[in-house]
Design a protein that fits this description.
It is elongated and about 85 Å long. The N and C termini lie far apart (62 Å). Strand 3 and strand 4 form a beta hairpin. It is built from 1 helix and 5 strands; from the N terminus they run H-E-E-E-E-E. The chain has a single domain, classed as Beta-Lactamase (2-Layer Sandwich), CATH 3.30.450. It has a 5-stranded antiparallel beta sheet, covered by helices on one side. It is α+β, with helices and mostly antiparallel strands and 136 residues long. Keywords: Membrane, Transmembrane, Transmembrane helix.
Length: 136
């Protein structure tokens, strides 16, 4: 009888410990995830708003005072990359797919890495251009 009670209390204590550790881990993960994504998303949205209001984003001689972690990639209507934008030469050897989602923050996988991304479309004198902002 004593062994049975001892076993039951051990299982109950293990279950309570498992639940408490799981709750603590979930709370910590949620806090860190929200905190990290909040700052990155704010940077992307700020730059996306500024880029959308600019008439000719493909001109390289225009000084941009922006976050150096953000790279801009331009696509034409046919799905071909027009330009890799300012300082985006790290993506020259890597195939990047045309964005499937517009005006929405999402994670993009390039090779074995994930990047926080937003894509939007602009009407220009050359036709419609898709822009993708990638944060590294």
């Amino acid at each position: 009888m004593f062994q049975r009670t001892h076993l039951r209390l051990t299982l109950l204590n293990s279950l309570v410990f498992f639940v408490l550790i799981s709750l603590l881990g979930t709370a910590l993960y949620s806090y860190m995830h929200a905190r990290l994504y909040k700052d990155v998303d704010a940077s992307l949205m700020h730059i996306a708003e500024r880029e959308a209001n600019y008439d000719r984003p493909w001109e390289k001689d225009v000084p941009f005072f922006r976050d150096p972690r953000v790279f801009i990639v331009f696509w034409n209507e046919k799905g071909e990359i027009i330009d890799l934008g300012h300082d985006a030469t790290i993506f020259t050897q890597t195939p990047i797919e045309k964005p499937k989602q517009l005006n929405k923050l999402y994670d993009m996988k390039i090779e074995n890495f994930y990047f926080r991304t937003i894509a939007f479309q602009m009407d220009t004198e050359f036709g419609k251009i898709d822009q993708v902002l990638i944060i590294v």
